[in-house]
Design goal:
elongated; 12 helices
């Protein structure tokens, strides 16, 4: 079922176009042929994406009785427009460039032609169909160009994208624009995008009780930092390899990581705790371990 996903001026102009006082020379304004085109104005370049969204918006255009009544009861009396869209089966011509075509600012890439009364109420659907896909993919392309061909880009934007459908769309179009994978499981499921993700910060917080009742390191006889315990539990729970969320470490932790063995550079494929670290290790665990860990994690991904 369609919605009144239009501005009031669409309804007001549409209603007026059916009135005799708005006639052109030889016909009602509502029947005059009109063409509306769409451009993107805020990006220097973007791939044209969103065709499937436009098709859905145009097909799903049947308006239900409560919405028609809402138009009829409008203070402007939009009964003519309500009658026109009551059994609307839009007949018009739509043109668009092929999906993925790169266009530049102010360059038209789609248009719609048809009778003025109904066509002018369709133009907003073009903006809604193309804006988010093109903006997202263009931004992803800029990330890809800045990162280069061999660096890995992952989408972790789910909680920042509002509702689930918008979040799925952003994950999909970021993938099209050059990202390698996503943390969004629904997007990964729908379009077979690789899904990635590891622990969240609250995994560490769940082990706060070891701050007050610490676990003892058998090798040294010293109490472990609670974050060390949390990391060890995570590594043990994921013997096939994982990624550690290093930004949870406190700067006072320091040497608590020294118990882990010294692995060779790895992609976290081996079962030992040490080799589960995605990092390049140094030859000793001397002073500055915390700083070196972060440097090593960055080096493993080619960032320094």
């Amino acid at each position: 079922m369609g919605t009144l996903n239009i501005d009031r001026y669409h309804a007001a102009m549409g209603d007026a176009s059916y009135k005799d006082v708005a006639r052109l020379h030889d016909k009602p304004l509502s029947e005059a042929q009109a063409t509306f085109y769409v451009t993107q104005r805020k990006l220097p370049f973007a791939p044209v994406l969103g065709h499937e969204r436009l098709v859905r918006l145009l097909i799903d255009s049947q308006i239900d009785r409560p919405r028609l009544r809402f138009l009829e009861q409008d203070r402007g009396g939009l009964k003519l427009f309500a009658k026109a869209i009551e059994d609307m089966h839009f007949v018009g011509a739509i043109r668009a460039v092929r999906p993925g075509t790169i266009v530049f600012a102010q360059q038209p890439f789609a248009d719609i032609s048809g009778a003025f009364g109904l066509t002018q109420a369709q133009e907003i659907k073009f903006e809604h169909a193309f804006d988010l896909p093109m903006t997202t993919a263009s931004t992803a392309m800029q990330f890809r160009m800045a990162a280069g061909e061999h660096r890995w880009l992952s989408d972790f934007s789910l909680r920042r994208n509002g509702d689930i459908e918008r979040a799925v769309d952003i994950a999909v179009y970021a993938f099209i624009g050059g990202f390698n994978d996503t943390s969004n499981m629904e997007a990964a499921h729908r379009l077979d995008i690789p899904a990635v993700g590891t622990e969240a910060h609250y995994w560490q917080q769940a082990y706060l009780e070891f701050m007050y009742e610490p676990e003892v390191e058998p090798r040294t006889g010293k109490p472990k930092h609670f974050e060390q315990v949390a990391f060890e539990r995570w590594l043990d729970a994921n013997p096939n390899g994982t990624t550690l969320l290093l930004d949870t470490m406190t700067s006072t932790w320091g040497r608590c990581m020294q118990r882990w063995p010294q692995p060779q550079p790895t992609r976290a494929a081996a079962p030992s705790r040490g080799s589960a670290l995605i990092q390049e290790t140094w030859q000793s665990w001397d002073a500055g371990v915390f700083v070196s860990l972060r440097r090593m994690a960055c080096r493993a991904y080619g960032q320094i």
